Give the backbone structure.
Amino acid sequence: MLQTFANATDEQTIAGIVDTVFDEMFETVFAKAEQFLVIGYSFGSLLALEIVKRLEARSLQGKLMLIDGSPLYLQRFASHHLSGFDDEHLQMAILTLVLSFVLPTATQDIIKPIMDQSTYLERVDKLMEVARDSNPFSEEYARKMMRVLFYRLKAAMNMSTEAKEKIVSPLVLVRSAKIGDVEEDYGLSEFTVASLIVKIIDGTHQTMLANPELIEIINKDTL
């Protein structure tokens, strides 16, 4: 729900992003619930932690499951790949990433005219023109996605990994076996006073989502 771009904002903090939807989400999903289950994947894990804090503040009890994500993991990823980037370089990195998906075989003859545009909006315009037949999304959605990706990455880069307020709900982390250079629990032991279970499954950050073991874990641990 929080990852949809339909009501996306330009918020650059995790708390700010949750602020924009929490009241409506609470009334729609949690107001009459006796317990909650919140699942977050990747960047969504940051939002999930913030949501659980707010649900607990309203005296609700439940469980949190994070799939290959945590404040420490995502900040290290952002620092490793985007350290020292100003806004323009970050925007260029997003364009490069999107190009790799929508035009994976693009040559420099295609890429250069896009990158040679003067502003980010002009580069996005050129990308939409060049990739019109390859883009699986509507042009409106693609434009919004590229804007929101920029602000989501800035939020990940600017966040603190210090747990100022710990949750009291049990936490399950399902993480990729391919990820190294980070603590086994992704630093999540600092964010909860309850039990923390770590389960490691095959696959990369992306391909683990297709691993049947993940579905089994979700069903077994949450239903």
Notes: Strands lie at 35-41, 61-67, 171-176, 196-201. The mean pLDDT is 84. The CA atoms of residues 84 and 217 lie 38 Å apart.
